[in-house]
Design brief:
heterodimer, A: alpha/beta, five-stranded parallel β-sheet, 9 helices, 5 strands, B: alpha/beta, nine-stranded mixed β-sheet
Chain lengths: 215, 486
């Protein structure tokens, strides 16, 4: 048990300390020691990334560090992935979210930040990328039975597409709440199109939890 | 706790506002004025030193005609690098032409109260509070009493200012207005008490002084005090304050020559008094509003004189301390922002080692704590640009660029992680999204600066002076109060 504990804390501390090599080593060690991949993620990596996310929110860490920590976590999950697929365990989730940048907009750094923070907050995030056509958004939401849809726009020319997206979702009978954000979006606009506004990545987690009835 | 002091680097190619031949011409014309018309030297000791060195002295008119070769000989004795000591050794630095620093200016007579926002007469507490804030701010390098305490005996205000600074700020102190020899003697005594004696003070001068000459062509009343500082090895900053159109000709070049002549004449006196002693070229020109006749520090012409004087200091290869950051604004507002930014930046772009003026409004007469924080912020932005940048394998990561490819980003890259801490960071500038800004009270930079000033005053505690040293300094202040003539 102490061996497992020490591997889990190596994963957690490696993320906190932004040490890519140490985290990858620890992920390999976890597999070799028979630690369940779900446990390695939830009690190791996720604890680390949540801590980094909280420090980021308190302005004790920088956005560059947050993204770097997320990159390390992704690499570590790649190591754990085969074992994760083989096992029957499922990761616990605060809710399923489909996230993307709307059609016509290729600016995705803000959206990526939102993904990192939502994942750190325990959400299962399906990131469908940037410049995503409305019909693909709707299709993905149906496929994964998303509880929440997140769409971002940086350019003023693409905010209108958010409205099309809400309308299409509702026309398809999808009731999942919609969260919008991005530099071109205002709270007033969100209200007007029947969506919820998130002002930044931290705020997105707060709004997501509110919309899904948690906290 | 405050961050430790950070020093700016002058890594950029220097701006020159004059052609090299114009700088030669400014020097030649300055010598011509000093030889032909001479300069008024009120100091008896100053005239004696000049006379002994071969100058043509008239003790009735106090006009001294100084041979050009004497001036050049004395200018060559001025050190190129100057060490600036500080109460706390970690705050010491060197004026070497390769770094940039900033200092507050003095000496104002009113303060915009941090709590009430009212403009009121300045007090000793304002000196202490502003010194404490300067102690905290990482890119404020030295303190000149921003205001004068109006409640202390007027004839001894400088020693009170120095005492309040010593008690609240562990950085270098420069005296803003030391006019009389007796003031200088007592301030040097206080400094020596802190440094551990006169010898140690000379190695590590924790005090310097501004020495104002009077335009046109008068060394003014401060020469005796400056001589004392020079002999103690504490650098005087030899300041010209030509008032374009009033006490100097109505042209930039005219004011440049007049100011330069005064500065090199004073340097000649001080190098005769204490050969090889450290000193700074210094300038604080002003311009006249030609419509009203009011004089103001803010006009572009005055800032051009500053930049030209920076170039002249480089010509003589001596450090320069520029009085800048002028504004006539009555509040920390947009006008204060643009006047101060232009004034300071052109001086630094020209290669100024040091500028002073953060925190003051209304032509250096009114203290605003908010403005002090904002000016510090502006300096940190300028310093970030002034350091310049290098082009090499580390700064242009070819492999990372190729790895990221055509649509990726650099935010998760090790190279980004390794370099992001060099990025400028705001202290009081607002950079929030509209919603966050609105939710947090819709505060602008002035509001943030006020909050930050209050926070610093509440939480920052400089190392107190040792009890016996504090007592010794109080005794010197009491002694000064009875010895300095009223």
């Amino acid at each position: 048990m102490t061996d497992k504990q020490s591997i889990l804390s190596e994963l957690e501390n490696g993320i906190k300390g932004l040490q890519q090599e140490a985290v990858i080593e620890a992920a390999k060690k976890a597999l070799a020691a028979g630690v369940s991949p779900v446990e390695a993620i939830e009690h190791g990596l996720s604890k680390g990334i949540r801590d980094v996310g909280e420090k980021f929110a308190r302005k004790e860490m920088f956005v560059v560090e947050l993204i770097y920590a997320a990159t390390i976590m992704e690499e570590a999950i790649k190591v754990l992935e085969p074992a994760l697929k083989a096992s029957k365990e499922k990761r616990t989730s605060s809710g399923t979210v489909v996230l993307g940048t709307v059609s016509g907009d290729i600016h995705d750094i803000g959206k990526n930040l939102v993904r990192i923070m939502l994942e750190a907050g325990g959400f299962e995030v399906h990131d469908i990328g940037k410049d995503v056509p409305t019909e693909r958004f709707v299709g993905k939401v149906k496929d994964v039975h998303a509880a929440l849809v997140g769409a971002s726009s940086l350019m003023t020319t693409t905010v209108q597409v958010q409205k099309e997206l809400v309308d299409s979702l509702r026309a398809s009978g999808i009731k999942a709440p919609m969260m919008v954000g991005g530099a071109a979006v205002t709270e007033e606009w969100a209200k007007e199109i029947g969506a919820n506004y998130a002002s930044d990545a931290n705020n997105a987690v707060v709004i997501a939890n509110q919309l899904l009835g948690k906290r | 706790m405050a961050e430790s002091m950070k020093i700016g680097t002058l890594g950029m190619k220097r701006l020159k506002v004059m052609e090299p031949k114009d700088a030669d011409d400014v020097h030649a014309r300055s010598l011509q004025l000093l030889e032909k018309m001479g300069i008024k030297v009120s100091s008896d000791e100053g005239r004696r030193l000049l006379k002994e060195a071969g100058a043509d002295v008239d003790d009735n008119t106090k006009i001294v005609k100084i041979p050009g070769r004497l001036v050049e000989e004395m200018m060559a004795k001025c050190p190129h690098r100057i060490k600036m000591g500080a109460r706390n050794k970690k705050n010491e630095f060197v004026l070497d032409g390769k770094h940039c620093y900033t200092c507050t200016d003095g000496v104002g007579v009113a303060t915009i109260d941090l709590d009430s926002g009212e403009r009121r007469p300045s007090t000793l507490k304002d000196v202490a509070d502003s010194a404490k804030i300067v102690d905290y701010l990482p890119m404020m390098h030295m303190y000149n009493s921003l205001v004068t305490p109006l409640e202390v005996p007027k004839h001894a205000h400088t020693v009170y200012e120095f005492m309040a600074s010593l008690e609240n700020c562990e950085k270098h102190f420069t005296a803003g207005s030391t006019y009389r020899r007796e003031e200088a003697i007592h301030m040097i005594k206080m400094a020596a008490a802190v440094a551990g004696g006169m010898k140690k003070l000379k190695r590590r001068p924790i005090i310097s002084t501004l020495t104002c000459t009077t335009s046109p062509m008068d060394l003014g009343q401060t020469t005796d005090a400056a001589i004392e500082f020079s002999r103690a090895g504490c650098p005087p900053h030899l300041m010209a304050m030509p008032l374009i159109g009033a006490t100097a000709p109505m042209t930039v070049a005219g004011a440049v020559v007049l100011g330069n002549a005064q500065i090199i004449a004073l340097a000649t006196v001080l190098q005769l008094a204490a050969p090889g002693s450290p000193l700074c070229y210094s300038t604080e020109p002003m311009a006249m509003d030609v419509q009203s006749g009011l004089f103001e520090g803010l006009f572009p012409a005055a800032d051009m004189v500053r930049a030209a004087h920076v170039q002249m200091a480089k010509y003589y290869r001596i450090p320069i301390f520029v009085g800048g950051w002028g504004t006539c604004s009555k509040a920390p507002d947009v006008q204060a922002g643009y006047e101060k930014a232009f004034s300071a930046f052109i001086c630094y772009l020209s290669g100024a080692d040091m500028t002073s003026g953060p925190g003051l409004l209304e032509n250096w007469t009114v203290l605003s704590f908010e403005q002090l924080l904002i000016d510090h912020e502006m300096f940190t932005m300028m310093a970030d640009m002034l350091q310049g940048f290098k082009v090499n394998d580390d700064t242009v990561p070819m492999d990372v660029i190729m790895e990221v490819g055509h649509e990726g980003h650099y935010m998760g890259k090790k190279h980004t992680l390794d370099h992001f801490r060099q990025m400028w960071q705001p202290m009081v500038t607002d950079g929030q999204t509209y919603k966050t800004w609105k939710d947090m009270g819709g505060k602008n930079a002035v509001d943030h600066a006020r909050d930050k000033a209050k926070e610093i005053l509440k939480t920052h505690q400089p190392e107190p002076l040792a009890a016996d040293l504090k007592k010794e300094i109080q005794q010197i202040v009491a002694e000064a109060e009875s010895n300095i003539p009223h």
